[in-house]
UniProtKB/TrEMBL annotation:
This is Probable nicotinate-nucleotide adenylyltransferase. It catalyses: nicotinate beta-D-ribonucleotide + ATP + H(+) = deamido-NAD(+) + diphosphate. The keyword Translocase does not apply. HAMAP family: NaMN_adenylyltr. GO terms for molecular function: ATP binding; nicotinate-nucleotide adenylyltransferase activity. Its EC number is 2.7.7.18. Belongs to the NadD family. Residues 6-168 form the Cytidyltransferase-like domain.
Amino acid sequence: MKRVGIMGGAFDPIHLGHLLAAEAAREQYRLEEVWFMPSHIPPHKHQAGVSGEQRLAMVEAATRSHPAFKPLDIELRRGGVSYTVDTIKELRGQHPALKLHFIIGADMVNYLPKWEGIEELTGMLRFIGLQRPGSFLELDALPPYIQDAVLLADMPLVDISSSLIRKRISSGLSVRYMVPEAVYEYIVRSGLYGIHS
Ligand SMILES: Nc1ncnc2c1ncn2[C@@H]1O[C@H](COP(=O)(O)OP(=O)(O)OP(=O)(O)O)[C@@H](O)[C@H]1O
Ligand SMILES: O=C(O)c1ccc[n+]([C@@H]2O[C@H](COP(=O)([O-])O)[C@@H](O)[C@H]2O)c1
């Protein structure tokens, strides 16, 4: 069975924290591919300020150089609120022979009990959880059926978030090296987040 990781997020914009988390999960759990999937409307968060098309273009730019990383536009094409349970059912229908892993940072691991259809989701995939500065991943605080569905991976802690990047750009500060060069160029070229080159 092919082992695939899915890294879902708003990617507004995609940054080095996302990429290092995906690479750590890929290596430690021998994932053959990792699919980066921008959400349409995130279930529990403000809607992205930048269009789905532009967030996908940044994901494409960020993943192009890695042979195992691919963009996935399934949630942008479906529209509406991007509940993971709906997406995973759709993906399992399309690819019944995949072993799916959903890669998430500590903030999202702690939030798993509130995910739509979480009981059903834990029967369809494993989560791979990574520590993230600012949110301590506490497996013991989760119900046992969720703990059983979460695998842990290590990564160099990266204190970068999309909101930090947006805030720095709007304050005229540099975000070079917080995002891949190709993403930085896309942000400048498209004038995203009010950037001045
Ligand atoms: N620096 C990081 N280290 C580990 N995981 C991360 C990091 N940044 C984001 N993630 C994880 O990546 C996934 C997608 O995150 P998302 O696209 O919402 O980025 P974000 O940086 O959290 O955005 P925002 O700051 O706008 O809330 C989530 O599971 C999140 O926990
Ligand atoms: O389905 C849910 O209820 C759910 C709740 C919170 C987060 N998620 C998914 O988890 C991924 C990371 O979420 P976020 O809010 O950090 O971008 C993204 O793919 C979301 O759709 C999903």
